[in-house]
Design brief:
CATH architecture: 3-Layer(aba) Sandwich
Order of helices and strands: EEEHEHHHEHEHHEHEH
Structural class: alpha/beta
Strand order of the largest sheet: 1-2-4-3-5-6-7-8
CATH topology: Rossmann fold
Mean pLDDT: 97
Strand content: 15-25%
Helix content: 25-40%
CATH class: Alpha Beta
Radius of gyration: 17 Å
Number of helices: 9
Protein backbone atom coordinates (compact mmCIF):
# COMPACT_ATOMS: atom_id res chain seq x y z
CA UNK A 1 0.00 0.00 0.00
CA UNK A 2 1.35 3.39 -1.00
CA UNK A 3 1.75 5.97 1.80
CA UNK A 4 -0.72 8.83 2.14
CA UNK A 5 0.19 12.21 0.69
CA UNK A 6 -0.72 15.32 2.64
CA UNK A 7 -0.79 18.87 1.38
CA UNK A 8 -2.99 21.80 0.48
CA UNK A 9 -4.81 22.70 -2.71
CA UNK A 10 -5.91 26.33 -3.05
CA UNK A 11 -5.64 26.58 0.72
CA UNK A 12 -7.71 23.45 1.40
CA UNK A 13 -5.86 20.74 3.36
CA UNK A 14 -6.06 17.23 1.94
CA UNK A 15 -5.05 13.64 2.61
CA UNK A 16 -4.55 11.75 -0.65
CA UNK A 17 -4.47 7.95 -0.86
CA UNK A 18 -2.94 6.66 -4.11
CA UNK A 19 -4.15 3.59 -5.99
CA UNK A 20 -2.29 0.37 -5.21
CA UNK A 21 0.34 0.93 -7.90
CA UNK A 22 0.84 4.57 -6.95
CA UNK A 23 0.40 5.62 -10.58
CA UNK A 24 -2.14 7.62 -12.56
CA UNK A 25 -5.80 6.98 -11.97
CA UNK A 26 -9.24 8.53 -11.68
CA UNK A 27 -10.10 10.81 -8.76
CA UNK A 28 -12.60 10.42 -5.93
CA UNK A 29 -12.97 13.43 -3.61
CA UNK A 30 -14.48 13.28 -0.13
CA UNK A 31 -15.68 15.73 2.51
CA UNK A 32 -15.74 14.55 6.11
CA UNK A 33 -18.22 14.79 8.94
CA UNK A 34 -18.17 17.41 11.66
CA UNK A 35 -18.99 14.55 14.02
CA UNK A 36 -16.30 11.87 14.29
CA UNK A 37 -14.34 11.47 12.04
CA UNK A 38 -13.98 15.26 11.96
CA UNK A 39 -10.89 15.84 9.82
CA UNK A 40 -9.65 14.82 6.39
CA UNK A 41 -6.98 12.57 7.93
CA UNK A 42 -9.47 10.88 10.27
CA UNK A 43 -12.00 10.39 7.46
CA UNK A 44 -9.27 8.82 5.30
CA UNK A 45 -8.64 6.34 8.11
CA UNK A 46 -12.34 5.56 8.57
CA UNK A 47 -13.18 5.21 4.85
CA UNK A 48 -9.89 4.60 2.99
CA UNK A 49 -11.52 2.70 0.09
CA UNK A 50 -8.23 0.86 -0.41
CA UNK A 51 -9.73 -1.57 -2.92
CA UNK A 52 -10.79 1.19 -5.31
CA UNK A 53 -8.31 1.68 -8.20
CA UNK A 54 -8.40 5.46 -7.92
CA UNK A 55 -6.85 8.37 -6.08
CA UNK A 56 -8.99 9.06 -3.00
CA UNK A 57 -8.47 12.63 -1.91
CA UNK A 58 -10.03 13.57 1.41
CA UNK A 59 -10.53 17.33 1.73
CA UNK A 60 -10.70 19.26 4.99
CA UNK A 61 -13.90 21.12 5.81
CA UNK A 62 -13.67 24.77 6.91
CA UNK A 63 -12.17 25.32 10.37
CA UNK A 64 -11.39 21.60 10.73
CA UNK A 65 -8.15 19.62 10.91
CA UNK A 66 -5.27 21.86 9.90
CA UNK A 67 -7.69 24.81 9.78
CA UNK A 68 -8.92 24.48 13.37
CA UNK A 69 -8.67 27.63 15.46
CA UNK A 70 -6.07 27.10 18.22
CA UNK A 71 -6.11 23.36 17.45
CA UNK A 72 -9.61 22.91 18.87
CA UNK A 73 -13.23 22.71 17.68
CA UNK A 74 -14.34 25.36 20.18
CA UNK A 75 -14.65 28.09 17.54
CA UNK A 76 -17.01 25.91 15.50
CA UNK A 77 -19.16 25.25 18.55
CA UNK A 78 -19.32 28.99 19.21
CA UNK A 79 -20.61 29.58 15.69
CA UNK A 80 -23.21 26.84 16.13
CA UNK A 81 -24.42 28.41 19.37
CA UNK A 82 -24.65 31.85 17.77
CA UNK A 83 -26.69 30.69 14.77
CA UNK A 84 -26.59 26.99 13.87
CA UNK A 85 -27.84 27.55 10.33
CA UNK A 86 -26.42 30.80 9.03
CA UNK A 87 -23.12 30.96 10.98
CA UNK A 88 -22.37 27.25 10.86
CA UNK A 89 -24.24 24.77 8.64
CA UNK A 90 -25.03 26.91 5.61
CA UNK A 91 -21.79 28.87 5.92
CA UNK A 92 -19.60 25.75 6.00
CA UNK A 93 -21.35 24.01 3.10
CA UNK A 94 -21.23 27.19 1.02
CA UNK A 95 -17.53 27.77 1.70
CA UNK A 96 -16.56 24.15 1.04
CA UNK A 97 -18.46 24.16 -2.26
CA UNK A 98 -17.15 27.54 -3.40
CA UNK A 99 -13.52 26.68 -2.67
CA UNK A 100 -13.73 23.30 -4.41
CA UNK A 101 -13.21 24.30 -8.09
CA UNK A 102 -9.90 26.00 -7.32
CA UNK A 103 -8.86 23.11 -5.08
CA UNK A 104 -9.75 20.62 -7.80
CA UNK A 105 -7.67 22.53 -10.33
CA UNK A 106 -4.63 22.42 -8.04
CA UNK A 107 -5.18 18.74 -7.21
CA UNK A 108 -5.03 17.99 -10.93
CA UNK A 109 -1.72 19.89 -11.07
CA UNK A 110 -0.26 18.07 -8.05
CA UNK A 111 -1.51 14.50 -8.61
CA UNK A 112 -1.68 12.21 -11.70
CA UNK A 113 -5.47 12.17 -11.84
CA UNK A 114 -6.21 13.47 -15.32
CA UNK A 115 -9.10 15.63 -16.42
CA UNK A 116 -11.94 13.10 -16.48
CA UNK A 117 -15.10 13.02 -14.37
CA UNK A 118 -14.57 12.56 -10.64
CA UNK A 119 -16.33 10.66 -7.90
CA UNK A 120 -17.64 12.52 -4.85
CA UNK A 121 -18.40 11.25 -1.36
CA UNK A 122 -19.48 13.08 1.76
CA UNK A 123 -20.35 12.19 5.35
CA UNK A 124 -22.90 14.10 7.43
CA UNK A 125 -22.36 17.84 6.72
CA UNK A 126 -19.78 16.84 4.11
CA UNK A 127 -22.59 14.93 2.43
CA UNK A 128 -24.38 18.22 1.82
CA UNK A 129 -21.23 19.47 0.08
CA UNK A 130 -21.10 16.40 -2.16
CA UNK A 131 -24.79 16.82 -3.01
CA UNK A 132 -24.35 20.53 -3.70
CA UNK A 133 -21.48 19.74 -6.08
CA UNK A 134 -23.83 17.34 -7.91
CA UNK A 135 -26.75 19.77 -8.04
CA UNK A 136 -25.29 23.27 -8.21
CA UNK A 137 -22.01 22.98 -10.14
CA UNK A 138 -21.07 21.89 -13.65
CA UNK A 139 -18.16 19.69 -12.48
CA UNK A 140 -18.44 16.32 -14.28
CA UNK A 141 -19.04 13.50 -11.79
CA UNK A 142 -19.21 9.80 -12.69
CA UNK A 143 -20.73 8.67 -9.36
CA UNK A 144 -21.56 10.03 -5.92
CA UNK A 145 -22.12 8.61 -2.45
CA UNK A 146 -23.21 10.10 0.86
CA UNK A 147 -23.06 8.60 4.35
CA UNK A 148 -25.49 9.62 7.13
CA UNK A 149 -25.73 12.82 5.17
CA UNK A 150 -27.29 16.22 5.77
CA UNK A 151 -29.78 15.70 2.93
CA UNK A 152 -32.34 18.24 4.18
CA UNK A 153 -30.74 20.96 6.27
CA UNK A 154 -33.98 21.62 8.15
CA UNK A 155 -33.58 18.16 9.70
CA UNK A 156 -30.08 19.06 10.87
CA UNK A 157 -31.22 22.39 12.33
CA UNK A 158 -33.82 20.47 14.35
CA UNK A 159 -31.00 18.59 16.11
CA UNK A 160 -29.91 21.80 17.84
CA UNK A 161 -31.56 22.94 21.11
CA UNK A 162 -34.51 25.29 20.92
CA UNK A 163 -36.86 26.27 18.12
CA UNK A 164 -35.01 27.94 15.27
CA UNK A 165 -36.77 31.13 14.13
CA UNK A 166 -36.57 31.48 10.35
CA UNK A 167 -36.64 34.76 8.47
CA UNK A 168 -36.61 35.30 4.70
CA UNK A 169 -32.83 34.94 4.43
CA UNK A 170 -32.55 31.81 6.54
CA UNK A 171 -35.56 30.23 4.84
CA UNK A 172 -33.93 30.71 1.46
CA UNK A 173 -30.66 29.33 2.83
CA UNK A 174 -32.17 26.20 4.36
CA UNK A 175 -34.30 25.53 1.28
CA UNK A 176 -31.21 25.80 -0.92
CA UNK A 177 -29.85 22.78 0.98
CA UNK A 178 -32.92 20.56 0.62
CA UNK A 179 -31.72 17.82 -1.70
CA UNK A 180 -34.95 15.87 -1.49
CA UNK A 181 -36.67 18.84 -3.10
CA UNK A 182 -33.79 19.13 -5.59
CA UNK A 183 -33.59 15.41 -6.31
CA UNK A 184 -34.65 15.82 -9.94
CA UNK A 185 -31.39 17.71 -10.55
CA UNK A 186 -29.30 14.71 -9.49
CA UNK A 187 -28.46 13.01 -12.77
CA UNK A 188 -25.37 11.15 -11.53
CA UNK A 189 -25.66 7.66 -10.00
CA UNK A 190 -25.90 8.18 -6.24
CA UNK A 191 -25.50 5.79 -3.32
CA UNK A 192 -27.18 6.85 -0.08
CA UNK A 193 -25.63 5.07 2.92
CA UNK A 194 -27.80 5.33 6.01
CA UNK A 195 -27.22 3.89 9.46
CA UNK A 196 -30.36 2.29 10.81
CA UNK A 197 -29.64 4.04 14.14
CA UNK A 198 -28.83 7.46 12.66
CA UNK A 199 -30.81 10.48 13.87
CA UNK A 200 -34.45 9.75 12.94
CA UNK A 201 -34.86 12.87 10.80
CA UNK A 202 -31.68 12.18 8.83
CA UNK A 203 -32.69 8.53 8.44
CA UNK A 204 -36.10 9.54 7.10
CA UNK A 205 -34.53 11.95 4.61
CA UNK A 206 -32.17 9.22 3.38
CA UNK A 207 -35.05 6.83 2.79
CA UNK A 208 -36.97 9.52 0.90
CA UNK A 209 -34.04 10.42 -1.34
CA UNK A 210 -33.40 6.74 -2.05
CA UNK A 211 -36.84 6.51 -3.66
CA UNK A 212 -35.66 8.72 -6.53
CA UNK A 213 -34.60 7.26 -9.91
CA UNK A 214 -30.87 6.60 -10.10
CA UNK A 215 -30.46 6.63 -6.30
CA UNK A 216 -29.65 3.45 -4.39
CA UNK A 217 -29.83 2.81 -0.65
CA UNK A 218 -27.33 0.97 1.52
CA UNK A 219 -28.84 0.55 4.97
CA UNK A 220 -26.33 -0.37 7.69
CA UNK A 221 -27.71 -2.20 10.75
CA UNK A 222 -26.36 -0.99 14.08
CA UNK A 223 -24.77 2.17 12.66
CA UNK A 224 -25.42 5.40 14.55
CA UNK A 225 -24.38 8.78 13.15
CA UNK A 226 -20.57 8.81 13.71
CA UNK A 227 -18.10 6.54 11.92
CA UNK A 228 -15.37 6.85 14.55
CA UNK A 229 -14.95 7.33 18.27
CA UNK A 230 -15.03 10.96 19.49
CA UNK A 231 -13.43 13.38 19.18
CA UNK A 232 -12.35 11.86 15.86
CA UNK A 233 -9.83 14.51 14.87
CA UNK A 234 -6.79 12.22 14.66
CA UNK A 235 -6.69 9.09 12.45
CA UNK A 236 -7.75 5.95 14.32
CA UNK A 237 -8.20 2.26 13.66
CA UNK A 238 -11.23 1.57 11.48
CA UNK A 239 -14.29 0.50 13.48
CA UNK A 240 -16.21 -2.61 12.31
CA UNK A 241 -19.28 -0.60 11.25
CA UNK A 242 -17.10 1.89 9.39
CA UNK A 243 -15.53 -1.10 7.63
CA UNK A 244 -19.02 -2.15 6.50
CA UNK A 245 -19.60 1.33 5.07
CA UNK A 246 -16.15 1.26 3.48
CA UNK A 247 -16.93 -2.02 1.72
CA UNK A 248 -20.22 -0.64 0.43
CA UNK A 249 -18.90 2.62 -0.98
CA UNK A 250 -15.82 0.88 -2.38
CA UNK A 251 -17.96 -1.58 -4.32
CA UNK A 252 -20.16 1.28 -5.53
CA UNK A 253 -17.24 3.24 -6.96
CA UNK A 254 -15.37 0.17 -8.26
CA UNK A 255 -18.43 -0.91 -10.25
CA UNK A 256 -18.81 2.52 -11.82
CA UNK A 257 -15.16 2.81 -12.73
CA UNK A 258 -15.35 -0.36 -14.86
Amino acid sequence: MEPAITGTAAGVPFTALPPADGGPGPLIVTWHMLDAPASNAAFAAALPMDEVPAWRVHLGMPMCGARMVDGRMDAIMALAQRDPLMAYLHAFVTQATEEFPAALKELREQLPVGEGPIGVLGGSLGGAVALKVLVDTDIPVFAGAVVNAAIRMRSVVELFPGDYVYDAESTAAVDSLDFVAKASKITTPLLVVSGELDHPGLRADALRLAEEPGVELLSVPGLKHPLAEPPGIEPAAQLPLAAAVDRGVSEWFRTRLN
